[in-house]
Write a structure and sequence with these properties.
Its main location: membrane. This is Fatty acid hydroxylase domain containing 2. One of its GO terms (molecular function) is iron ion binding. Keywords: Membrane, Transmembrane, Transmembrane helix. By secondary structure, the chain is mainly α. The protein has a domain of about 200 residues. It contains 13 helices and no strands. The longest helix has about 40 residues. The chain is globular, with a radius of gyration of 21 Å. The chain starts with 13 loop residues before the first helix and ends in a 9-residue tail after the last helix. The N terminus is likely disordered. The structure holds zinc ion (2 copies). The site of one zinc ion (ZN) has 5 residues, from helix 10. One zinc ion binds next to loops.
């Protein structure tokens, strides 16, 4: 793919634009059918999981009620802890570990799994410091007002701190819906951010890192943070009128997943980060999270011809994919 280097700065192929509306209709149809199928098979699909969950459901209900009585009359505080402190603590614990590897290159066991070999070895300390400042700004200045605003909106549907926890089945259904909504909102807002005007003014910042690391998941212009990072994740719980427990789990999961997709290591037994890593490398491919919409809009066609695509699998062993599927030494094109 050496010839690709010159086209790195191109944002869109003009001929893709004509297909966009047709593809969007197709997308709506396929997502709609997918949702119908999901509902149709929901009971049988979740029956086993619900059984597995079984008695521990009562355990969690009891824990939640204990928490509620501790925070009686201060549900708002409980809400703020649930939507900010818990997800952020998990984010920084995970990123702390990744940063230790990024800055020291140790343990070697982990750095062997680096996707873009030779990049960030070691990571530029000054660039990292600047980036972390932006991440903290987004996390502690931009996000909180949005999350404060989310509370009364959620209350329109039902109290997020209500006594009854959602069932495990309901929680799984919520996760499926949250994921679909995030995919749609993230894909289109992200593609819009690649429009030359928005790209220059807003999204370029996030792309300063062509070989991303974990914390870069939240390294973005404030407008991008609102539109592309926060809203796609917040809309799901509003649509579903979710319980605080679901929201906390979802926000935490979303932060962990986005960290993994930016971390720069294709680690065993974790979701593959190849897709978004390739987006950072090439700019005009792989805009989504799951890749469904990229498939439908044809924004992953170049990606599909690469070694990165062959490596875009769940690694179920300990041999790094850069070793088992090495880059071709030369391409005869
Ligand atoms: Zn990114
Ligand atoms: Zn982008």
């Amino acid at each position: 793919m050496k010839g690709e280097a010159g086209s790195m700065q191109r944002h869109e192929k003009p001929k893709q634009e004509g297909h966009t509306w047709g593809s969007m209709r197709r997308t709506a149809f396929i997502l709609g059918s997918g949702l119908l199928l999901l509902v149709a098979f929901w009971n049988s699909a979740t029956w086993h999981l619900q059984r597995f969950w079984g008695a521990s459901g009562y355990f969690w209900q009891a824990q939640w009620e204990r928490l509620l009585s501790t925070f009686e009359g201060k549900e708002w505080t409980l809400y703020i802890i649930g939507v900010t402190q818990v997800p952020n603590l998990l984010f920084w614990s995970f990123n702390g570990l990744l940063l230790a590897v990024d800055t020291t290159g140790k343990p070697h066991f982990i750095s062997r799994y680096r996707i873009q070999v030779g990049k960030n070895e070691p990571v530029d300390a000054e660039k990292l410091r600047q980036s972390i400042r932006t991440v903290l700004f987004n996390q502690w200045v931009i996000s909180p007002p949005m999350l404060v605003l989310l509370y009364p909106i959620l209350k329109l549907w039902g109290d997020p701190c209500r006594r009854e926890l959602p069932t495990f089945r309901w929680f799984l259904l919520e996760l499926a819906v949250f994921t679909l909504i995030e995919e749609v909102l993230f894909y289109y807002s992200h593609r819009l951010l690649h429009h030359p005007t928005f790209y220059r003014k807003i999204h370029k910042k996030h792309h300063e890192w062509t070989a991303p690391i974990g914390v870069i998941s939240l390294y973005a212009h404030p407008i991008e943070h609102v539109v592309s990072n926060m809203l796609p994740v917040m809309v799901g719980p509003i649509v579903m009128g979710s319980h605080l427990s679901s929201i906390t789990m979802w926000f935490s999961l979303a932060l962990i997943i986005t960290t993994i997709s930016h971390c720069g290591y294709h680690l065993p037994f974790l979701p593959s980060p190849e897709f978004h890593d390739y987006h950072h490398l090439k700019f005009n491919q792989c805009y989504g999270v799951l890749g469904v919409l990229d498939h439908l809009h044809g924004t992953d066609t170049v990606f599909k011809q690469t070694k990165a695509y062959e490596r875009h699998i769940l690694l179920l062993g300990f041999t790094p994919l850069s070793e088992s599927i090495p880059d071709a030494p030369k391409k005869t094109e």
